[in-house]
From TrEMBL:
GO molecular function annotations of the record: ATP binding; hydrolase activity; nucleic acid binding; RNA helicase activity
EC number: 3.6.4.13
CDD domains for the chain: SF2_C_RHA
SMART domains: DEXDc, HA2, HELICc
Highest taxon above the source species: Bacteria
Region described as Disordered: spans on this chain: 836-866
UniProt keyword terms in alphabetical order: ATP-binding, Helicase, Hydrolase, Nucleotide-binding
Listed name of the protein: RNA helicase
Organism classification: Bacteria, Bacillati, Actinomycetota, Actinomycetes, Micrococcales
């Protein structure tokens, strides 16, 4: 089937990018990969797709980072083309699709194309892919670049275009190009409309421990109203965009503006707003309608043009993903807007003419903000990305030309989650279960709960719960069950959008309309069980309760606070927990944002793989005391005292107690401590096979060197009576053990004949040397400092007075006798007149006795020159 070409001259009328049409055509004539760089508002999203479509056979797929942007771009291009939406130009986003066999250009979100690639890796029937807004560095966009690079290795006819609104085109050109040359770059610059920058700092803090302050929201609202009224005196038709960090702040600011300026049409624009309302905002207003103030999140930051906007009021706050590896949680954290993003926001005011931006901070605060936002791949939860890559056949992104590699720590956490779901095998390859989970366009944990929950509570109920916790719906008071009841009744303003998601998820269960075969359950039990199937590590038990709220211990080991009706529950299935230091966190550093009550039996069912039943022990007054504990992760369900026996279970209990409390429970004898220090020096200097005897290493290998003693401890022997010297000798390597005393002797024979004990450095000291403390007179005539460990380590001498006080420290005896000794002799001979202080220490017999006794023992060698 052939279709008429698009008309660039018609489509590009009034668009700055029309001047680059010839350059883009020339680039496409010479390369199948091109990078387009042009400022926002120049028309590249409108013009590039039809230009490419007229040069390729097959459909052109254009990705957008957001659903509202994909719908808006498709509607605009279809309108300019004069064709019905869904014919020549269409779109596909989550839960909505308008395309036909005649569609030549299809706008999609990056996530839609990622999952399409899993089922159609060759992209049959597709002639080109255009990735828009690559500069935003969304995780799904970054993954697409890597995957499409592999597709093009098999399909050299597939055209790939990356479009950026910032000056980072060279980086993407290198990735999209070949080893021989980067992809060509098509650039279009336009003179910027004048932008007036104003500063309106709030006299009170923007943020406190609970988040954005009410006072700051008041300030943003009043600033927006005042700035709009000021601008309306010269431009009555001007609309305004007000940027807030999140949906809650958007609603609060919008409510305040309505109270301050009833004459204005105040709209909200964020992910929770129904699609029809989003589209109405993007579509602009009629000539007779009231001026608008649109309060929005970063949704309108770069990829959307809102007609009529001449004023931007910027809170200079943003929400960005952040992962807390220690607590095992991810979430959106409010902080200063990066300056590059603030520039993008300000640009909304000058897309169609001169504009004004009012920033609700002072210049110093603005200058202190981060320069650029972190790429999402560096801060996001990577579980879904890791599963997609495993299904693609590139575990962890191996072999892909990604803009940035996946961070090792976050990737490791994601792989651990996927292994727990049975989605990948030990080598990181996708299992059949993993491929089934990847078919469902949501987080793998939610997909698993949808599949498992369908058999327990029915497909419809499981889909309802997943649509609630997997979307961006508000959960009142953190109570997911009550919110679900409101959605079912239709009382919630989000009910229609939620129902669409329910139907979408229900289709993936293969049990549409099923009510399940499990036992009858109430809405509370159903909701809690499905949530627990998704997040078993967040099953929580109440451990403290007060008038202000409650503290719960999660199976992961994290403590989190909650207020409201759920604070009285004994067990919760938590769907959302984030870092917070507000009052509701109850001093735990985390707050439960969404949860449902769950029974203890359902908690056990959902987290069966986290249940342990074993004897736990600890040292009390030096003896092993044990309890039999049944746990769900870190949550102790029952604990009863048990008697420890000298069997395998008792030895394991003693070992775990030592691992928890450390080697300090033992009383180290001089022999054991000395042997350990000697072995530590040999390991430090020679490495293997001499053993590592650090605390960490010994605790990691208790069973291999402390086996008999573990039995003694389990049988009731106090730790203080355990002799560790024989146990440490089990670590000695064979046959090297025979050289222990030569390499690191216990004692050192000095010239007087005394055998003086060496003091070896502490085990954790990586620089210190062995020390011998000996009376100075016992070393007369000793020129060469002894060295240990085969000559590698010189001994450090602490030369003592007859009374045992330190006189000098040296590792060079010859230099000491030739120099500092003379001063020591001058100071000490009067203080210790009965001991030898010869002028010539080289020719004097060493002695540990007084001068008189030394003369009696060695008549011919009596020291002179006292």
């Amino acid at each position: 089937m052939t279709t008429a070409p698009f008309d660039p001259s018609k489509l590009g009328r009034g668009l700055a990018f029309a001047a680059a049409i010839t350059d883009l055509g020339a680039a496409l004539d010479h390369s199948t990969s091109v990078v387009v760089s042009a400022p926002p508002g120049t028309g590249k999203t409108t013009l590039v797709p039809p230009i490419v479509a007229d040069r390729v056979a097959g459909r052109v797929i254009v990705t957008q980072p957001r659903r509202v942007a994909a719908r808006a771009a498709a509607r605009r291009l279809a309108h300019l083309d004069g064709s019905p939406l869904g014919s020549r130009v269409g779109f596909t986003v989550r839960g909505e699709r308008q395309v036909s066999p005649d569609t030549r250009i299809e706008f999609v979100t990056a996530g839609v194309l990622l999952r399409r690639l899993l089922t159609d890796p060759g992209l049959d029937g597709v002639g080109a892919v255009i990735i828009d807004e690559v500069h935003e560095r969304a995780l799904e966009t970054d993954l697409l670049i890597g995957l499409l690079g592999e597709v093009r290795e098999l399909r050299d006819d597939l055209v790939l275009v990356a479009m950026s609104a910032t000056l980072d085109a060279e980086r993407f050109a290198a990735i999209l190009g070949t080893d021989a040359a980067p992809a060509p770059i098509v650039t279009q610059t336009v003179p910027a409309h004048p932008l007036e920058v104003r500063w309106a700092p709030c006299p009170t803090p923007r943020l406190d421990e609970r988040g954005v302050t009410w006072a700051f929201l008041d300030h943003v609202a009043s600033t927006a109203v005042a700035a709009h009224r000021d601008l309306a005196r010269t431009d009555p038709a001007a609309d305004a965009l007000v940027f807030a960090p999140g949906a809650r702040e958007v609603s609060e600011i919008a409510r305040r503006i309505r109270g301050l300026a009833g004459e204005l049409d105040v709209r909200e624009l964020h992910g929770q707003v129904p699609a029809a309302e989003q589209d109405a905002v993007i579509g602009g207003r009629g000539p007779d309608s009231r001026p608008r103030i649109i309060v929005t999140t970063s949704l309108a930051e770069s990829s959307l043009t809102v007609p009529g906007v001449r004023l931007v009021v910027d809170s200079c706050l943003s929400r960005a993903p952040q992962r807390d590896a220690m607590r095992g949680m991810s979430g959106l954290v409010t902080g200063p807007t990066p300056r590059a993003s603030a520039v993008q926001r300000a640009g909304r005011a000058t897309r169609q003419g001169p504009g004004v931006v009012v920033r609700c901070v002072d210049e110093r605060t603005f200058a202190a903000a981060p320069t650029h936002p972190a790429p999402e791949i560096a801060v996001a939860d990577l579980t879904d990305a890791a599963l997609l890559l495993a299904c693609w056949g590139a575990p962890g992104g191996a072999g892909l030309r990604l803009v940035d590699p996946l961070p090792a720590g976050s990737l490791g956490d994601a792989l651990a989650v996927l292994r727990g779901l049975g989605a990948i095998d030990a080598d990181g390859r996708a299992t059949e279960e993993g491929r089934q989970l990847a078919r469902i366009p949501t987080d793998p944990r939610l997909a698993r709960a949808l599949r498992a929950g369908s058999t327990l509570v029915g497909a419809r109920t499981a889909a309802e719960v997943i649509a609630l916790i997997g979307g961006d719906l508000r959960v009142a008071d953190g109570d997911a069950s009550s919110t679900l009841a409101a959605l079912r009744s239709g009382r919630s303003p989000d009910a229609r959008r939620w129902q669409q998601e329910v139907r979408r998820f229900e289709r993936f269960t293969g049990q549409s309309g099923s009510t399940g075969e499990g036992p009858a359950r109430g809405v509370l039990d159903q909701t809690g069980l499905v949530i627990a199937l998704a997040f078993p590590q967040w099953i929580a038990r109440r451990v403290d309760h007060s008038a202000q709220g409650a503290t719960f211990l999660l199976a992961s080991g994290t403590r989190a606070g909650i207020t409201g009706p759920l604070a009285a529950a004994d067990w919760l299935a938590v769907a959302d927990v984030t870092r917070s230091h507000g009052r509701a966190a109850a001093g735990t550093g985390a707050i439960i944002r969404s949860a449902a009550v769950i029974t203890e039996s359902d908690a056990e069912q959902a987290a069966a793989h986290l249940i342990t039943d074993r004897v736990e022990a600890q040292f009390v007054d030096g003896r092993v005391v044990a309890r039999r504990e049944r746990r769900i992760g870190a949550i102790t369900r029952s604990s009863v005292p048990v008697r420890v026996r000298a069997d395998e279970g008792g030895r394991d209990a003693a070992r775990r107690a030592l691992e928890a409390q450390g080697l300090g429970v033992f009383t180290w004898s001089e022999a054991a401590d000395g042997l350990r220090r000697r072995l530590a020096l040999l390991h430090r200097e020679l490495g293997a096979p001499w053993p590592d005897v650090s605390d960490a290493a010994l605790l990691d290998t208790l069973s291999s060197w402390l086996g008999p003693e573990l039995s003694d401890l389990a049988a009731g022997t106090p730790a203080a009576r355990i002799d560790l010297a024989p146990a440490l000798r089990r670590l000695l390597p064979w046959p090297e053990a025979a050289g222990l005393d030569a390499l690191a002797p216990e004692r050192l024979e000095v010239p007087s004949g005394s055998r003086v004990r060496l003091s070896y450095p502490p085990v954790d000291d990586t620089d210190a040397r062995p020390v011998v403390a000996v009376k100075l007179q016992e070393c007369f005539g000793w020129a060469e400092t002894p060295r240990l460990v085969g000559g590698r380590v010189p001994v450090l001498f602490h030369l003592l007075s007859p009374a045992g006080h330190p006189l000098a420290v040296t590792d060079d005896l010859a230099s000491f006798w030739a120099g500092p000794y003379a001063q020591v002799r001058a100071e000490m001979r009067g203080r210790y007149p009965k001991h030898p202080w010869p002028e010539d220490p080289w020719s004097t017999a060493p002695t540990r006795h007084t001068t008189r006794r030394a003369a009696l023992q060695h008549p011919g060698d009596a020291p002179h020159g006292r």
